[in-house]
Amino acid sequence: MAPYSLLVTRLQKALGVRQYHVASVLCQRAKVAMSHFEPNEYIRYDMLEKNINIVRKRLNRPLTLSEKIVYGHLDDPANQEIERGKTYLRLRPDRVAMQDATAQMAMLQFISSGLPKVAVPSTIHCDHLIEAQVGGEKDLRRAKDINQEVYNFLATAGAKYGVGFWRPGSGIIHQIILENYAYPGVLLIGTDSHTPNGGGLGGICIGVGGADAVDVMAGIPWELKCPKVIGVKLTGSLSGWTSPKDVILKVAGILTVKGGTGAIVEYHGPGVDSISCTGMATICNMGAEIGATTSVFPYNHRMKKYLTKTGRTDIANLADEFKDHLVPDPGCEYDQVIEIDLNKLKPHINGPFTPDLAHPVADVGTEAEKEGWPLDIRVGLIGSCTNSSYEDMGRSAAVAKQALAHGLKCKSQFTITPGSEQIRATIERDGYAQILREVGGIVLANACGPCIGQWDRKDIKKGEKNTIVTSYNRNFTGRNDANPETHAFVTSPEIVTALAIAGTLKFNPETDFLTGKDGKKFKLVAPDADELPQSEFDPGQDTYQHPPKDSSGQRVDVSPTSQRLQLLEPFDKWDGKDLEDLQILIKVKGKCTTDHISAAGPWLKFRGHLDNISNNLLIGAINIENGKANSVRNAVTQEFGPVPDTARYYKKHGIRWVVIGDENYGEGSSREHAALEPRHLGGRAIITKSFARIHETNLKKQGLLPLTFADPADYNKIHPVDKLSIQGLKDFAPGKPLTCVIKHPNGTQETILLNHTFNETQIEWFRAGSALNRMKELQH
pTM of the prediction? Predict the structure, then answer.
């Protein structure tokens, strides 16, 4: 109970006059707004400084930049127990950002809380529901028509509860945040796993599930396990074909998809200054693929340049005054250090099927021949939240312009996704978009599109083996086009453009020649482009909706017959007993990302309707019993059928169930639907070798038990036909393992130990049935 001791008081305050615990603090040296859209909410560098000084005195050692920003946002810096990798911190984030697919469930949960207004500045960004079909304008019109009910819900909920609303067509959430809301030293949480993009502007920006966002919007301190800090020291400078993307592709190859779990990756060293602000954002963005809590760069002149160009000179000047708190202390210590010499770094391309399978571009063709990966590139795709900046588009256009000069166009299909309306308008004005069209490209809407599976792909049939190359961040099986035989590789936009022109993985632009229309051979020159436009950015169309000052008359309607939206019912409380005779729904073999647990693509339309979207539960996971996806044995009927159908059968018949998983279960997206769905369909526990950070937290928030084998080899002791009993819940306590009794069909039993990372607050969530239930208990 202690961690929530002040909650009732804070909720009572929130129910009265709207209070921003972050923005109401005025800097003593200057009064600078957090953004143009919130002129009365101010940056609180003076409080950051005060908290840092308190913690530094307590710890009596130099601090990393990550520690300065995180500890600078502690709710109680004088008394908070601080130990990297062990204690849970209670933090006060500055703001919340939500994309439209996750905002639906987040706002439905906030509505359930009964609070009248959000307690911190918050925004909703419409970027996930726009499907790429034929091109930007037509696709956007179609999306507005198809998703009208959802967009109306988000717009009216935003207006009712004080949340800013970025309409469809605005751009991708992370680009909008970088252009308008991120700043050095900010602590921002976002309901998308690539929220760390803001680390490119010196902020600690962390991806979370919607329930975490609800806590912060409700004015409750947000809990985070005290992160370890991995230092990446950069020396030398980027040049030639080597880009910022190659830094994170290299790091992913070193750390793998789980090597950053529980840690913040902090870049430092003399090589940092050779990277543009948007390039730093690219590196931080894809840090999600190594499981990192977030990534961050120290404040420098490249960030100041970007702030100035995006109309925030006042923030840059203020950051200059507080710069000592926006860089690491000399002599600070990291838990692990990786050194990368940018002078020696070569262009990389990672994949297929996992973002940590790293290859130098020079070697990938040979590796593809050896492994039987298709060499012919069917589609090249540039853009996404990772690589859609003005500099990215300029470098790609520089490559395309050379091909056009020799009479060539792309041999592969080629698509371009601008990161925001501002980027789209500016690259149209400056001619980049036209060059990319002339080389064979199609400019898509300012949205996520194919990166998250919103792609109505027509050039292949499902099951057809093929290769695509993207500048995206994630390349799990079937992620982009729902085809498990699509071999997706991720690399920089300029390498994608060069490979799309050549049409094959065998092409290395550093050494290989192309043949022009005149029959003469030529070599592409390494691209060069401005990191920012020489003139001002063109803002394009105004796509922002301010929340009204008076929202008392605002209605938020959810039809009881809607197939897209559904009001939430509270989950059942724990009955005070051990979980006996749990049926195993599925024992998962190998990689199981949140895409496997709750697929995106066509399922995105049900993100606001828990019962409908639960029909995709674990349909991508491989069942160890038969090696198939979406085929599990019903323990009662002994028939094999789809996973969701089997789960519904168990729920209908009062049979509680458990999932058995492998390593890094739940890696990838922050989508909390991967936790809501098993809870909704009767699941009680997920037992794995290890979890990805966000998914583990999401499971706890919804009242499930994420547990890990004390001995990973015990995974092999459990068979899909067994039943499990989880014992020791009456004495459930932090650090105390639980007991699991494995009951085999032949009557024999085995007992194993299960570890957990629950703290006292999280145990309260479990007992109440969910974190939201616990909030309501305390509120009343």
Answer: 0.91
